[in-house]
From TrEMBL:
One of its GO terms (molecular function) is iron ion binding. GO terms for biological process: iron-sulfur cluster assembly. It comes from Salisediminibacterium halotolerans. This is Nitrogen fixation protein NifU. Belongs to the NifU family. InterPro entries: NIF_FeS_clus_asmbl_NifU_N. Residues 7-127 form the NIF system FeS cluster assembly NifU N-terminal domain.
Amino acid sequence: DQLDTLYRQVIMDHYKNPRNKGELQDGDTLKINMNNPTCGDRIQLQMKVEDGKIAEAKFIGEGCSISLSSASMMTQAIKGLDVDEALQMSDIFSKMMLGEEVDDSKFDLGDIEALQGVSKFPARIKCATLAWKAMEQGLSDGEDEDDDD
Ligand code: FES
Ligand code: FES
């Protein structure tokens, strides 16, 4: 239907004109590599966290249109958010991938909503969540830094 067509256009636009594709040059950058074992596609997410906020986010990598457009949308959405907020947004995205109704009152999901339909294609959910998993891993690693083990 029309909404599907619109969503497909949004996805293709992010795939063809990825936002935040590239590398951060500063030393103080989190780098997280994540691959999709099903297909071997991989991305590296780079984030700079300053005063508990995500000051910068970029990615490089190879993958399908879903994985790269999701990375593009995700980096766009988390910039400027607190670490907690970014992790909450990741929870919302996971729910979306389970086909659940999501509460978008807290965040403006913007282009991310275009990925809703992916929940109907289980094989592609891993594509869509690749960048989000990288983000979660990077941000939770940071929180664990004070652990003694
Ligand atoms: Fe098959 Fe992504 S792993 S479509
Ligand atoms: Fe590999 Fe989508 S087919 S990430």
